[in-house]
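Check my protein:
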Amino acid sequence: MSKIFAMYLPQYHSIPENDAFWGKNFTDWVSVKKSTPLYKGHAQPNVPLNERYYDLSNVDDVRWQAKLARENGISGFGIYHYWFNNEKNLLTKPAEIIRDTIDIDINYFFAWDNISWKRTWSKIKGNDWSPLNDEKKNPNEPQVLIEHILGSESDWEKHFNWLLPFFKDARYEKKDGKPVFMIYHYEENIGKMIEYWNELAIKNGFNGIYSIIRYDRLVSYPKKQPVFFYEPIFSGWNSFVDRVFNKLKNKLKIKKLMVYDYDNIWNKIIKNAKNNKNDFSYFGAFVNYDDTPRRGIRGKVVKNSSPEKFKKYLKQLIDISNEKNKDYIFLTAWNEWGEGAFLEPSENDKDLYLKVIKDLCGDKNE
């Protein structure tokens, strides 16, 4: 049975860097609360059920998330990891809470979004903590907010040593005795880092490191390198033509909402899964998508979604994944409220999307 891991955004607690970039006490909740409908029938803003705008520096809020996920068939969280360099490692609090609080019953691994944070356009002026293509530099604002520096072996060792207490946690996900570590952006030196980490992991009593790279059509990977398809981006708007169009759109500052169809994207996901012959690949899934809280009229919206459709398509993907003996399905997302991709209960849909996981998986993912 393929385990479902929901991608988890740890950004809902204030940090000095975000306070400096976007204003005191900034989290993604700021964008979510200020969102407005852009067309008739546009379901914005999304509001958490009972207006539970949690703070992930609070152990009780993290415990609530883990309990909710576990009770509804989620195997664990893929927690986004923001290690920029030896001096900057941000948004670590929720993962540290899980590591240090034994009664929080959830498996987890890190998903390293290894890229610089750059200032770019967004709905709210200056309000964009995500690493996207930037526009012209405002002379009054820095272009690069935090620089990602991969470094060399000494840097890689420091990074590994920071991760080691998590790897040693029994709840940290292991594949064949290897800690799972997801990486979003691949380059040649990432491959060298993985080889070095493999040596360090063996020295520390593991069977190695199990790296999973986000698949990019334009990148060549080493043979037998595990990859995953990040959805809905891969099947929705990540073709060569889409990339060229989006770059042109950003360069010309075109304010145009991009609208996609839920069924169309999911049918592409299912088709890719059926046709995929790579034994070292994992499939992605998604709940929904609407990043207008962050991007406004320049955002992307997936329309015509429903819990019923989600259940139909996810069941197909689970069946295919099981037939192909895949260990994991990576789901976007547990709590990406700023991108409209969340399983957590909302005022609009209650817990209907979450119940889909429970109905399909129940305690099978425990």
About this structure: The chain has one domain: 3-365. The two ends are 11 Å apart (CA to CA).
